[in-house]
Structure formats: structure tokens, C-alpha cells
Amino acid sequence: MRYGIFSDVHANLDALEAVLRAFEREKIDALVCLGDTVGYGSQPNDCCDIVKRVTRYTILGNHDAAVAGRMDYSYYYDAAREALDWHSRQLTSENMNWLRKLNYFERDGATHFCHGSPVDLEEFEYIFSVEQAATCIPIWDSLGQITFIGHSHLCKAFAIGRERVYEVVTKEFEIHPEFRYIVSVGSVGQPRDHDPRASYTIYDSGRGKFEFKRVEYDVGAAARKIFNDARLSDSFGARLFAGV
Description:
Shape: globular
């Protein structure tokens, strides 16, 4: 199975369309979205419409859960909370119902998918360091051979042994059976690794090979849509240019 895996679209239609065009060139068998289709950006309905149509699995992200009334987000900072409030008013009933039904976790054999840490799915904990990945050692036996996550907006991979975790510092690698892997796939619509290009990933389960990928998109167009909507913070558009 050749998976196209992406996450954290955050209502950025321009970035999403660029990633889907890239997937078309990659001969993908199944698309998987790891959550946060909404939040921050200007086109939540358009992105929901596309993601729910093209994916085999879509995971519930924390922003999705907030908009759908499945978690308390009163502690979010003002601009993020106001964007979520606006998205909840904008979403069609069909898209809202879709978000309300999304699962926290999906598995396809030994390939697992969730938004944050698999240790406690509903808490949406981050994994972007060796120390955070090490919290998965106690559940090693229940981990898939490889677990894909989003949430941090960073491209990171970790090989988890029974007693120690190693960061995998390369854009592509082959998995080894003595390890379990946690792979954070970055963000389509709000990258935060100082690279403004949209992030997507490919995993060939037959070959056991994984790749991080990036694609250019019209950042200016996406930012202007945010700047032109008085209900969204300009910071959500400005950060797109720097990938932070």
C-alpha cells in the first residue's frame, strides 16, 4: 500500500490544492489526513469538502474537536479561539456533522494514524522531541510498526526501541522491524519549521519506506484571504511567509 499522508490543513485551500496535485503525481493508493482540517485559515468549508471526499481516513484533530463541540477550548489564546468560533459559525451542517463523527485513531494493519501522541488520544499531547517520544516506550507492544501523527506542525521521526528512542534525521528512510516508529508529518497549511512550503508525506508499506516531501504554493494568495477577513488575525497570514 502506498499512502499519501498529510495533516494540519487549517483551512488553507491554496496549500491543500497544491499538496493534492503533488499526490496525483505520486501514484498513491490511499490518502490519509491526520486532523485539523479547520482552524486559523479562511476557507474551512472548502477544505472540509475536499478532505472528506478524497481521504480513506481522516483523524480528529484538536481544532476539529473544538469547532465540533467535542472539547473545551476556552484556554486557547484569543486569536485562535476567535478563529474557531468563526469557523463553527461558517461550517455547513454536513461538515459539522462530519467533524463530530471523526475518530481519534485509525489503523490499517501495522500502520496506525492519530493526531497527537498515541499514549492518550483525547489529550492531544505533542511529540516533537526524543523525550516526548520516549513516553511511548511503556505502550511499545501496542504500537503499530509505524504511527503517523500531526499536531506539532513539524517534520520529525523517531525510532522507538524497548528501552531507548532515537531521532531519525533524514528526509527518507526504511523501517527496521526491531523498532516502532512515530512520524510527525508536518503541516499543509501552517508549517512551523521555517519552511513555508506545504508539507506532505509518502509511506510505502510494502517496501517499508517513508519520505518527507514539500511543495510550493501561492503563500501570498492564502495570506491575503486571511488579511481580508476581519474575523481572522493577520498573524495567521503573516506567519505563512516564514513558516513559523
